[in-house]
Amino acid sequence: MGTYLVKRLLLTLFVVWASLTLMFILFFIMPGDPVELKGGEKALSESVKNNIREKYGLDDSVPVQYAKYWGRLATFDLGDSYRNDESVNKTLSQGIKTSGRLLLWGGLVQVFGGLTLGFIAAARQYSLVDKFTTVLSVALQAVPVFVSGLLAQFTFGVVPFKNNWGWLNFNVRWPENWYLGVIPNGNWKGIVLPAVVIAVVEMAYLARLLRSSMLDVLRADYLRTASAKGLPRRKILIKHALRNAIIPFITALGLTLVSIFGIAVQTESVFSLPGLGSKIAEAAIGQDAPVVLGLSTVVILFAALMTLLVDLSYGLIDPRIRITKGQK
Amino acid sequence: MRTRHSLAIGVTALAVLAGVVPTATAATKKPTGGVFVDLANFAAGEPDHIDPGLTSTLTGAQVAILMYDGLTDTDASGTLVPASASKWTTIDAGKTWVFTVKKGLKFSNGEPVLPSSFKRGWERAVAPATASEVAYHFDLVQGKKAIDDKTATTLSGVVADDKKMTITVTLTIPFSGFPAVASHPVYSPVPKSIATAGLKVEEEGTKLIGNGPYMLKEQISKTAGGSVKLVRNPKYAGKKGTLAEIDFLISKDTTAAYQAFQSGQGLNAAVPAGQFKAAAAQYGEQGLGPVIGLDYWAFNQNDPVVGGPKNVLLRKAIIKAADRSQVSELIYQGQRKPIDQMVPPGIPNRATGVGFGTGRDLAGAKADFAAWQAAGNKLDAPLRLSYNEGAVWDKVANILVANLKDVGIDAKLDPFPADGTYFTKMRKGEGQIVRAGWFADYVLYDNFLYPLLHSASIGGDNLALYNSPKFDALVNQARGTADPKASAALYAQAEKVAVQEDAVVMPITVRANNFVFSPKVQNLTITPLGFILYQNITLAP
């Protein structure tokens, strides 16, 4: 197990290095010039352009810039944004907090919702609840986040404000203060819409996955036998069917927690949250290399670690997958 | 049964919490004068800077002008008025300017505002290490070139006398408009402490110290979801701001910010494209008026098809064929009005009648096109309307293509990717009929003609690559003419040469503000440059 862990960690480090190097190279291959982008509609004089290049080290050769980049990274200095000089470390620390909270609450809604809907749909196959869940799943997956986000803001913000239904107005600012870093201290309503919007897309997928997985398990001989022997339906569903059907759900959950970053880009934009996803997307468009590379480092690390954790968790959940001594 | 029961309890708990538990914001006692929560200024994205020496955006400058007072300022009518300077005069017909700084002014940290504070601020802005995008506003000041060339570190043309409270500025050429140029935020003073604070002072809220009516309340975050909070500057010697606090919230998406405004999160917002009429009907037109800026198309004078004197009739035909009203109504729902000249309304002593009229002249267009063809010219390929993707310019170009078809001129869209290289390519002459736009830096005739059409601006913002000795001579003469009316007359002549005689540009619409305000907002003033004078706003209970 120890050797396996070391190997996986080394592989993770290699993936991080290769990904960042690739991104660094791509940045220089991409058309456009970050200095020209700063000028926009108004021209920059040559002296200003030179000053900007010098300030950010863009006048260095690519290998020198690459070496400097890793040198800075080794001291945990991610540099400053080309666009507004803001420290990437600061952006990162703020972004991690916001994205972390969003992913936590969104993840909770996603897991709870996915489990509940999937379980009910499987337990009552072909019932109204099952059909509704299936239709809802397809609908939620089909609607882009920026549409569902704006729709949610309108329904639970604009309409209630117009009609003085303050209790239904959930389109309020993201909380500024938090208990223990994750529990909103005031303005709790501010997390509801973003968390639900970010959760619903993958929640629908997870629900469908759990449903089909549970239905497969429920059709197994040993469960038919258990049912014939008079084991209560509740026990069959929870202890046997759900437990055996949960492996693909957890695998998918690990992957959805990574892919949720993609959804976070739009959710953070629609709700103006200072998260990592939207910042990376914006920086990429603006060719703001320090921000893109700096923030991507964390995302890549997160993705690699999530994959590692999911792989390791299999052994804990299912004894058949445990790695024993002598196994490769 | 149990599931239903739990669900009912959950829903009831949620409803009770929603109705009963007060939010932190609601519980906070508001200070005298009120808190203005702004969802308009940074609605479309994060600020570049709020440091007056660095910001190159209107949104950043909006904050900077609340924190800093320059020597001069522009009032709500566009008139140049004193700010930190009590008076100014030229001692040699516009080449040397002497500004007298008011006594008793202080920065928010208590340090007195002296002429040397201005010199310090200016030299900080032009220093190569600052790499300020707006340092070009000092190009006419003697000594700026030496700093660019790194042969000097101070502006030799600026002499600050703290005893006499004067700052003397010597220019490289006589320029009557310099006091207006000095109203730009980049001409702000800075205190001594800033010299040692580095260039990232705006991140550390306490170090970006100004002399304006407001000051930073706390450390700012320039990321969406963050905010820039200003409070009254207790040391401000001028008229105190009416609002106790202004919170500029940073958003990423105009539509989302507008919905936040409509949900009661703030007191103003920027109106998303396509919603101007509905917004005006609901909130009034006070924040939807024109600003000194325009959208136009420039004819590349180096292009063999549309450029040069031999194609002037073709250009006139295109200009006369353009239906500006159609662009105004279909794209901007009437918010941006048609214009036929390069200098928009709002510039003092502005002359009219230097273009071909804002209406469409189809007969004139056809006659000019026929005359151009009769001279032995013909179009071998469709004309290219070059623009950058990602905004509404494709829609404007489509209208123009249809307009030209009515005259028999074949044209097509020529999109360039939105990767920031568009203007560089246009400056190199890669476009044919080039989409362009301009916001005024200061209320000055010169600000539209020199950068956009003077030959010295080729490679810069002169996207027509227009090089006319006649035009240049008139502008140069106007720049050196001290009398405002005589100067304006010369600028008007120059504008007529470029717009009517040579027809090198096709002005389309005047730019406009896109703000809406809550009915609670009173005493609202917006300057012709598009700045909201928050310091005068009062809030209804």
Beta strands of chain A, count: 2
Tell me, what's the shape of chain A?
A: globular
Q: What percent of residues of chain B are in strands?
A: 15-25%
In what order do the strands lie side by side in the largest sheet of chain B? 8-9-10-1-11-17
Q: How much helical structure, as a percent, in the residues of chain B?
A: 25-40%
Binned strand content of chain A: under 5%
Distance between the termini of chain B: 50 Å
Per DSSP, the total helix count of chain B is: 16
- How many separate helices of chain A? 12
**Number of separate strands of chain B:** 19
Please give the radius of gyration of chain B in angstroms: 26 Å
Please report the two chains with the greatest interface, counting residues with C-beta closer than 8 angstroms to the partner's C-beta.
Answer: A-B, 72 and 65 residues
Shape of chain B: globular
The residue ranges of chain B in which pLDDT falls below 50 over 5 or more consecutive positions are 1-29
Mean pLDDT of chain B: 91
SSE class of chain B: alpha+beta
**Class inferred from helices and paired strands of chain A:** mainly alpha
* Oligomeric state of the chains present here: heterodimer
**If strands are numbered along the chain, what order do they take across the biggest sheet of chain A?**
1-2
Question: pLDDT average of chain A, as an integer?
Answer: 84
